[in-house]
Amino acid sequence: MMQSKLASLTLKGFFALGLFLGALFSSFAASAQQAAPSLPLLFDARERLARPDLSSLVRLRFLTSVDFPPFNFTDQNGKLSGFNVDLAREICSELEISDKCQIQAIPFADLRDALAASQGDAVIAGFAVTPELRRQFLFSRPYLMLPARFVRNLAVPLDGKTAAALSSHPVGVVRGTVHEAMLAAFFPTLKAEPFDTKDALLAALKDRKVDAAFADALQLSFWVSSPASAKCCALFDGPYLSEHFLGEGMTIMLRQKDSVLTSAIDHALATLSRNGRLQEIYLRYFPYGLY
Length: 291
Prior knowledge:
This protein is α/β, with parallel strands linked by helices. It folds into 2 domains: about 60-145 and about 250-285, D-Maltodextrin-Binding Protein, domain 2, CATH 3.40.190; about 150-245, Periplasmic binding protein-like II (D-Maltodextrin-Binding Protein, domain 2), CATH 3.40.190. Helices cover about 35% and strands about 20% of the residues. It contains 11 helices and 13 strands. It has helices spanning about 10-15, 15-30, 85-95, 110-115, 130-135, 180-185, 200-205, 215-225, 245, 260-275, 275-285, and strands at about 60-65, 65-70, 70-75, 80, 100-105, 120-125, 135-140, 150-155, 170-175, 190-195, 210-215, 235-240, 255. The strands form 3 sheets. Strands 5-1-6-13-7 form a 5-stranded mixed beta sheet, with helices on both faces. The protein has a 5-stranded mixed beta sheet with strand order 10-9-11-8-12, sandwiched between helices. The longest helix is centred in the last third of the chain and has 17 residues, at about 260-275. It starts with 10 loop residues before the first helix and ends in a 6-residue tail after the last helix.
């Protein structure tokens, strides 16, 4: 049975490739005039993870998909691209095994079985970590957390710069999602207005039927910088992180027998986090930031 992508983001459909690329390229020009958004370090700067010996490794085959932009997709030239793809290449470079690395895209529904059948060595495609999967596979340390954020309509005056300023304003949320549950748990005094779909929520926010919304920061970040928002809105307060509601974050999935390779990937991720190369990849795909 296919696992849902991380934190039930439902990015497929939201990120039509044209919308993503348009927002991304327009973002670079604007972000050049702003301070670069910072990627929170997920590794302790004082922590040093051992680098295992990979001299006997014949090859490292990363498996991904092409339906999860901006993490993995095919660009306008048909080339496999995305945050996860660039990160996989940087991991191989850091481990000095670039000549042994391969990255292959297959349908998302086939990734789990392909890894179990040793048709690849590591999956980097946004699988949500679940207890069931942990019984079958190993996972790297998280390399990116996807937070929740508020977005506000700029035409609505707010008395403050924190969530407390929304106390007398209707805040939209998609019904039945982890974000609805998180909003109720984190902000029980806010007046939540549920909508059946994300599109209905964002249309209501744009039309001032609600003054703010609470949802996935990744979706909101690209929406506010895209033509679809008509510059009506901006991210507000946060970010808000919760493993209980949003999961463990972006990880790499490996076979149970590959504990040495998992440790090597953790070493590479920690190094890339400390030396700024992970931040560089982050800024390529999230010039406005998520945090």
